[in-house]
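Allow me, if you will, to draw on your knowledge of protein folds for a short while. The matter concerns a single protein, recorded as an amino acid sequence and a row of backbone structure tokens. Kindly check, if you would, that the fold set down in the tokens agrees with what the sequence suggests. You will find the record immediately after this paragraph.
***
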Amino acid sequence: MTAMRRFLASGWLSTYAFLYVVFLYLPVIFLPIFSVNSAATPKFPLSGFTLKWYEDLPRTPALLDAAWNSLVVGLSASILSTVLGILAARSITRYRYAGRRAINGLIMAPLVLPEIIVAISMLLVILQLGLSLSLFTIVLGHVLICVPYSMTVLTAGFEGFDRSLEEASADLGESAFGTFRRVTLPMVAPAIISSLLVCFTISLDEFIIAFFLTGTEATLPIYIWGQLRFAAKLPGVLALGTLLLAASFLLMTIAEILRRRATRRTQNDGGLHV
């Protein structure tokens, strides 16, 4: 009877997981399908196959400017978030001090707070400081929401690190900074690269923060939002959305591979996994 219950439970869980994945990703599958439809209206049956919507993308100056802005913002936010994430993850995993858990909770707070509330709060603070809305303010907002993701990835890389390796380096006469650069960073390098990719992907796809903090320079999500007002622009938006979807999937896949590699390299004993 117990075995039967376990079988039924596992069967229901598998069915639920399958239905959940279908519900979550089925609408996304229609995006690349309609992006190669020759008709401007996304509907079935498809009128024909064409790549002209993709061919028109490089001929749109506003799109190229938005893509460049997203690249600048994404690289800046990912680098700053990863640097801050390294410092925070190192502090949380290496040292024990009063308020450590509270600080960790505050860093992770943007993950559970409504993003629109975070965006409005950031806007009010920036205006009170007298800053003009620009790509710089978007970077600040993206850093705020990317640091928790960076810290999550990096904490996993630092937790399995054996402190005796650092102690051995210090015994050999290496300085604290040299030990961190020569011993610690190479061991957690896959986690660092994974953090960079995750943060860049989040920044690339983020809309709400950018919508409130953008000035005259739009990022790709803001550009897409503006194009949705015109029905004739919809096929190009679908093509651009497909490219962003593919890029995000590729970056997240690489980040997950690197995260698992970091987990294998730093085991509970902190040694190299051979």
